[in-house]
Amino acid sequence: MRIGLLTEGGYPYLNGEAALWCDRLVRGLGQHEFEIYALSRTERQEDEGWLPLPPQVDRVRTAPLWTAESAADGRTRYGRRARRRFTDCYQDLATALCGGGVGDPAPPVTPSSPRTSASPATPAAESPSARSATSPGATPPAPSVPLATAPLSAPADTSALEADRFGNALYGLAELARDEGGLPTALRSETAVRALERACRAPGARRAAREARVPDLLAVAAHLERALRPLSADWYEDDALGAVDLCHAASGGAAALPGLLARHFFGVPLLVTEYGVRLRAHYLSTGDAPPAVRALLAAFHGRLAAETYRRAAVVTPGNAHARRWQERCGADRAKLRTVHPGMDAAPFTEIGEAPEDADPGTVVWVGRVEPAKDLVSLLHAFAEVRKQEPRTRLRIVGTPVGPEGPAYLGHCRALAAQLFPDEAEGPHTVGDNPVSFEQVGGPELPTLADAYGSGAVTVLSSVVEGFPAGLVEAMFCARATVSTDVGAVVEVIGGTGLVVPPRNPRALAEACVALLRDPDRRARLGAAARARALELFTVEQNTTAFHGLYLEIVSRTPVRRVVLDGAGEPVPFAAPAESHVPGRWAGPQTRPAPRGGPGWATGAAARSAGGFPAAEGA
Fold it and tell me: Is the pTM of this model over 0.85?
């Protein structure tokens, strides 16, 4: 089977997101052929190069999302008809964003019963909150109605109308880009900005959109131009995405756009995998933007997510936390299949088979040092632990990340020095601080497994978390864990660790003390955690699940055509035998005749689609 793997800022780049799980997936499915279509986010990412690729990767095609402008060697000028097509499509797109529906503010969730917090010393599965919604403060408040539907005051068919308008406008722009050689300049033109302005001032536009000013419109137009660049890629031809049997998008958002267009132009089925929901990531990253910009961009990403879920054959969230977001974006439950991330357990095998080697008086935290990890609460909790267990030590193992990481690490070091002055055991010994800040790779902690193995209890103190990979690594090492109830933590732990509310140092301290004082309980929870991790979160279960999904999706896909290779032989799975089985299968879809494709993604510089005056300040 030939798979088109679609990524954004990830595989095959060395420092890409989700690069490891994509690499493990490709290597674990050696019986299939892969073509990679990658969107890069930064120039640095492209300069650092790719991971070593296995032989089953036939081709890699890339396109940049980071270039500032669509500068080009030449200009492809639009005629009057093409300009009219662009204006109509972009106006419909802008109208769909400014109207009610996806991205609108909604009333807060009103649960049927009050949420109760887990007892600090109670396993997650025994707590009523283990199955409840995400904790306050962990993520932005989720709307009480699906994001793909209109507000409660709007008619039910209004949302469907806006969704169809958005989809038709999106595919109309894609067809125009395919016919005319690309869209980048048109998307940043004064025509696009004026279309946005008309939509914002139109009757029925949401309040935040009506308040948009010229700088806001320019910012939104610039963001849409970057987000829609995949429409101008030269990937939508018979010898590119038209030749694959299945498109597998490794995330939502821009990565799924080529899959939507392959389905639109060629009828190629689409599988979407999200371990971190793009819409949620957008909400977390645009908190400082003006209200009008936030509202319009949230509407765009919300409608794109809804369109992706509607057109995908199968959507695979990585956990129940992501699944809830997808359902509230309009994903059909019948299409959702939870597939947990596959992680390599081999580096942690030796530590996991010898849990008795852990220091019984040491608590370990491992992760990326950033404000979302809430090390401040952990340090205050450890101060409470020291009052009850004076000989306990805390090892914080991690590297600062992001623009706030180094300053946050400095703040945590200063707080640790203030809370825990250097202590000496006698008058002739040097004082030592019970809290240490370390990094993996040093003489004491040469590997990540050694970091987890150095303590009897592993702590996760985050206030925002998606899938807690570090928690799974601790489980591989058979360590008892204390975690905050955020993201997918409760789902991952499954009763094999203790879960406490976030931003609650007292509860965190009580849970740690309970485990430090009970070695038998630590051993039981650690053994159960390791068994659970080996059953649910290994590479083998991940690749097996996707192999089955590939076969299922392709077996239900109508035969589109017979594809021949260079020797004139039919490409395997291009005409699946299962599609000949009698039954109610979908009929064959008519594929548009091949047309000339754009060359936007063929070189470092993008081809320009001229014929529009440039937007001032764009």
Answer: no
